[in-house]
Amino acid sequence: MNENKSNIYQNLNTDMSIEEPMRKTQQEIMPAFTEAINKPTGYDIYPYYPLGDQKIFNGYAALSDYIAEQKTVVIDGYVGVYWNLFISSLTQELGSRGLSLNIIDTASFFKNEAVIDEMAGEFLGEKDAVWGRKTTLTLADFFDLEAMKSSAASHEFDINIMVGCGASLSDWDAALVYVDLPKNELQHRMSAGAICNLGKSQPQEPTEMYKRFYFVDWVVLNNHKESLVQRADVFVDAQWDEEINWAHADTIRDGLNKMSTSVFRARPWFAAGAWGGQWMKRHMPQLDQNEVNYAWSFELIVPENGIVFESEGLLLEVSFDLLMFLQGKNILGKHAERFGTEFPIRFDFLDTFEGGNLSIQCHPSLNYIKEQFGEQITQDETYYILDCNDDASVYLGFQEDINADEFKNVLQNSNENGVEVDIEKYVQVHKAKKHDLFLIPNRTIHSAGAQNLVLEISATPYIFTFKMYDWLRLDLNGKPRPINIDHAFKNLDFSRKGDKVTEQLISKPYLLDEADGVVCYHLPTHADHFYDIHRLEFDSEVEVQTEGLCHVLMLVEGTSIAVTTDNSATMSFAFAETFVIPAAAKSYKIINNGKARAKVIKAFLK
Questions:
Q1: Mean pLDDT, rounded, of the chain
Q2: Fewest CB atoms within 10 Å of the CB: 34, 76, 327, 451?
Q3: What pTM does this model have?
């Protein structure tokens, strides 16, 4: 072969320096190895699904062995990956073997940054707008495809690699490696200014970066990922600064197939907030205790969750959407045609213990969220009170004598002049008790008060909150949080007031079934909710049929349960852990491992 050219980057964009591996958070990266995890007796923030022996590999050396066998490789992947670090690590590893390299970075084929900004800007709303609209662009729109496709592999080199976001658009006939990054880690890098939006050379302010990610970058990259999921040869997890773990794609696809007929749990992640509390910090010992608070848990907010696989102590995380791309019918059963690859139910925690009230807020109507933001379902919510203190409350619905014009004037005056609002003059306050269920269909004014741990059972959309009053407080960076009075007043339902609130917006549980020591309560949701809720209570065990429906569950009272599905898959879950039973599981048994009576919440599509 040719002389050693391992340091030659043909057509590589060398103007971009390697990113400084930075992340802005007190929380640690998920360990790459199980031996680094201290398993708790209760809630576990690192759930994983076993693949069997010798299914996951560690390090650039092992990946380089695979690349050396293939000789020509396309390495595609997600925004936020430290691509320059990835490239330099492969270059060093392959070059040390005396191989000549032709490494072509897709960053050199991005269209002019001003062109990309104008193109993406059409979907970002007015300047300083909180929300944009989901893009209709494709990933190909970001590149000079003619130039990319003209950069062919060369026989002059031992190894040819096309690498970076969109690499497969080159149409090389080569093995395909896909490099992914969990959304929580992406956002920690974003907050530190360590990464950029797609096609950008410099990071923006984090809120602007996130808006671009949500409405543009993630949309085009998720669609692109879906187009590759069946033909990828390797999946790489690149969430660590210097490590990678990877697996053959057939292994991951097989694991996702088995998961889609059994039981599984997504990896939760956590975020601090202006109103955040201390309950999760105290009850989830693996969480970093140096974080100021934990406001949210992303128990099952699947656009941002991942699924973790394990093999011989090695961990590899893939995005939840891979499961839906490949096995959506198994997961959703009867509802697969309606929702496609979008998982429609969301579970998350709102922790206000020793924290503050959430903002007074509402969510958009279905027509409004479709027309304004490009979403297909809207943010219909419920608050299930998992735990609370004696003085906990929930703000929900208007007072009988509400005057819309007066209320709007008071809110605008508060926002413009920093005047406190006597919110209880306009909004009802309800005492909260454990296991209460408050119903919050779109257009309903609401807020969770302090001293609650709320299990929010909701439709999947999660960022469309129109804040009207935020108690004059600042965010964790010392800045005011955006107030969205105009959006709110285009959506508020002022008929949800007076006695109608307690009649229609606070669920009235009733006994649905009782047999063999098992009690099933129906916790009716609002007519606008497309999901419903049951609570199973039992001392020993209960058997459940899926009846073609996906079930999302949580142990809301008790210490531990074991779940066995029809295909004999078994997993155990502690108090407050969210898990999923796909429709294709057909049936499952829940066994109470504790001494006290177990209570399990089950959410499912109507």
A1: 95
A2: 34
A3: 0.95
